[in-house]
# Entry
Amino acid sequence: MSTQLSASWPHLDSPAPAAVAGEKDACGVGFLAQLQGQESHWLMQQALRGLGCMEHRGGCGGDGDSGDGAGVLSGIPWTYLEAVWPQAADSAGQARGLGMVFLPREPERAAQARAFCDESATKLGLRPLGWRVVPANHEVLGPLARSNAPQIEQWLLGADVDGDELEALLFRLRRRCGDRARVSFGAKASDLYFCSLSSRTVVYKGMVRSEVLAPFYGDLSDERFAVSFAVYHRRFSTNTLPRWPLAQPMRLLGHNGEINTLLGNLNWAKAAESNLDAVWGADAADLKPVVNPAFSDSANLDATLELLVRSGRPITESLLTLVPEAFRNQPELEDKPEVQAFYEYAACTQEPWDGPALLVFADGRSVGATLDRNGLRPARYCLTNDGFVVMGSETGVVELDESRIIEKGRLGPGQMLAVDLENGRLLRNWDVKREVASRYPYAQWLNDHRRNLEPQPWTTSKQLGDLELLQQQTAFGFTAEDFELVIEDMASAGKEPTYCMGDDIPLAVLSDKPHLLYDYFKQRFAQVTNPPIDPLREKLVMSLEMHLGRRGSSLKPEASAAGMLHLPSPILNEAELAAATSQGLPATTLSTLVAVAAGPAGLQQAVT
# Structure
């Protein structure tokens, strides 16, 4: 398995396991932000306190002391760094970036990594200004975490550009350094890992318990470490062994939940790599592949989000594109056609990353949180009279006097709360979505370019004789059990039959009876909830709609990307199938017939 992954997906800059869907999270996450942008050490202290209160949501290793992971993502405390790092003081006032880097433990390999990182930066026009060993107390680590702890250093870079242009340059640099590590270190390439490389944010994380993070990283306890926002995360890993780079927050996200559509998302992301050239041109080669089946679901979502953000889309807009709310049969959207149009356009370019999830995000310009369309994870917030916004998986984790609190609330399904750090604005759910929807004329694009397949009546004029009907039923796999236990019950009661028994149906591949092709496929996971979602919510959050045609790029919204064929359902009758092929899209017919005389060899050739 690992050999196949290495051949197909060469960009492995994380030591995440090879199990594609085996990485799930059930974690504690939250953020704090100061609306006026006032930096303080108190805010970091409260983020660490909130992290400590999430300890029960995290996991520990077999030694009982090595945590599954904990970390904080915050603004870069330049004032503190300038006080303790001469190179940072010398570069004050310049455009610059900061990397938080896990290096190999061996001094020789660590020196080699620093050298090729500096070389890669120089080739991109950046100026390596120095490396700083991050103060770390390994004595507080558990035995397992201590045995595989990396060398942790910060990397300072000067630049002649700033803002989003610098962020895009640092994004490319990180990927190039990962390429060099694969060439230099081979199977141990993952010993070089960038927790963050940005001009706006820094990530302190590790394979630790919540209460150990601050004692381990001396920086976090220094009163000069002052920031205006912080995201915290305590990890619970259910199916993999904990590793240092798998701790969260990632570079933009802290994630509590799981992405059930991961395999489909990875396949679509691979197919969409050809669209990178439209935005990145020749530089697109640095960014492929965007995702990797060896990464966790959280890491792949973070990588996809980062690509959209570094391509120029705001982080709020990018998340609404990747994790949309249920926008059909949504009463609150009836008077917001521009938001509805945004979601309909986004569906033409990007499949949703779906599953129960609370996503807390920060890119240095905005910080906030959003819930999945089902709202199956807790997300509570409060606002204070002195401009603090506090969000978390639980309430009461931050030390606040009740008299300071002016509002309490919780996010509902598909809702978002964001803080505009640059302009000091609190953006509530519809504020965010109206702002995002107003950036382009999505409704006009859909009206001008999208094709819609209208429902056609089903024809029932054909009557079959008893013998022909039996032949057809046999050909399509119907059995006496289907008629007696399923069809008859459905026809008489007008609803699906319900049975209280386990699934003891034998696997088709082991059966001595003929089976239809789809009998040979089984679900990888339970695509239902327990307890089951009620019919009212099912109508609100679930849809069979789909789009056919060549997808446009989700990196750069443009009118032509709306030129898809919209289907209300994948189930088509003959008239609808004929109509679909006459919509101006290229179409071909594939035969599903196999020559019986050709035997097994003919079948193998037909399905390969």
